[in-house]
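Question (not urgent): is this output format expected?
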Amino acid sequence: MTISTAAPAMAGGGLLARLVRLLRLPERVPYSVLAIPLRLAVAEVFWSSGTTKLADWGATLQLFEDEYKVPLLPPDVAAHIGAAIELSTPVLLVLGLATRPAALVLLGMTLVIEIFVYPQAWPTHIQWAAMLLVLLCRGAGWLSLDHWLWKRYGATARG
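Got this back:
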């Protein structure tokens, strides 16, 4: 096919034009739809960790004393803080409430885990960080309480 015959095929809805439209279809997916699995995936990871901590608090304290070694904090304080973060922020993410602050807190926790606890698990941590950075930078999307509060109350509810 020459250039002169390709142009009418594109203009007339030919096979190539249909293929181009098909390949561009994912670009039309709204961010809010993409944010839902990001919020749910991150929430599940941290919620599971938090509920595991609660299931056997004695073992959790032992892990913080022997393995986790978070600097500057006594093991029992670090365990309580970690469990509180892991049980509260996932709820916020699922609801899309205070999404940016929750993502920032979890990003900080991810960095602590990566630097001080499990540096060899960086492939997993970079995935968490990537999802959290998107949520931090873009928010929860319109399918969220953040959006509803923003619409209802203005700048005081930005999350």
